[in-house]
Amino acid sequence: MSDLWSGGSFGERAQCVLAPNPNIMTLDGTNTWVLREPGARRSIVVDPGPSILSHLDRVAEVAGEVGVVLLTHHHLDHSEAAKEFAERMGCGVRALDPAHQLGSEGLGDGDVVEVDGLEVRVVGTPGHTADSLCFLLPGDGAVLTGDTVLGRGTTVVAHPDGQLGAYLDSLDRLHALAEAREANTILPGHGPVIDDAIGALDFYIAHRRDRLAQVEQAVLTLADRATLTEALTELDLAPGSGATVSPRSVVERVYADVDPVLWGAAELSVRAQLAHLTGRS
């Protein structure tokens, strides 16, 4: 993986147009993916991204005639311009969340979207958000992962919409696709393309397990209890809690080596982990 990322063409069917919205959460910006079967007239656009005219102009230039817009999930850095762009291009928007659809067709696990010979298979991958989807591109052996797997670093599982148990199941599902050689390459929603899907998913799964173990140990230490069951009785999930064992106190211990500017996002993930440990997710 390269630390420099500006989009480009990958495989025979995918081209990334990078949105100019970089920040600590979006990395280099949002990846808008234009998919087209070789020689075909129409394309599929995945995650048009933010409502920035220069970006949408560039996507329209690359995409040409668009058959449909697909959304990986509802977060605004992916979905904000979806309806605007689809209306401009004269097509619909398909998404799991009905609030983000344009037209009569939704989108769900197991669906197959076909446009001019291009086949995209929908894989339900809740966890980052409840409505997160991934899109398998069989012709290129690639999977578009939205924010479920990023091209650099790891993603946030933001409680309460995000749920850790569902996220771990989704990582296992993607890993199975990689093991079956159906998905060799990851085309993420942020950051560079990953050529080693199995390696990336192994890292993601191990990272989540390690973080969960660190959170468990932090709860034990903060509560000064012998068992996790006892320690969790001291837990207070209320926002802004000043309790000895709270999401913020766990963040301060587990993420002590992380820039505090990222602690807000880390706290969302810790809340998801604590909800998972207490059986509230």
Characterise this structure.
This protein is α/β, with parallel strands linked by helices and 281 residues long. The chain folds into two domains: 8-195, Metallo-beta-lactamase, Chain A, CATH 3.60.15; 207-277, no CATH class. Helices cover 33% and strands 19% of the residues. The chain has helices at residues 53-63, 76-79, 82-89, 164-179, 197-223, 228-232, 247-254, 263-277, and strands spanning 8-10, 14-18, 31-35, 42-46, 65-70, 92-94, 112-115, 118-124, 133-137, 142-146, 185-188. A hairpin with a 3-residue loop joins strand 1 (8-10) and strand 2 (14-18). The longest helix has 27 residues, at 197-223. The model has no long low-confidence stretch (mean pLDDT 94).
Number of helices: 8
Shape: elongated
What's the story with the biggest beta sheet? 6 strands, mixed
- Count of distinct structural domains: 2
Beta-strand residue percentage: 15-25%
Radius of gyration, rounded? 20 Å
Name the structural class. alpha/beta
State the separation between the terminal residues, measured CA to CA: 34 Å
Order of strands in the sheet with the most strands? 1-2-3-4-5-6
**Fourth CATH level, the homologous superfamily of the largest domain:** Ribonuclease Z/Hydroxyacylglutathione hydrolase-like
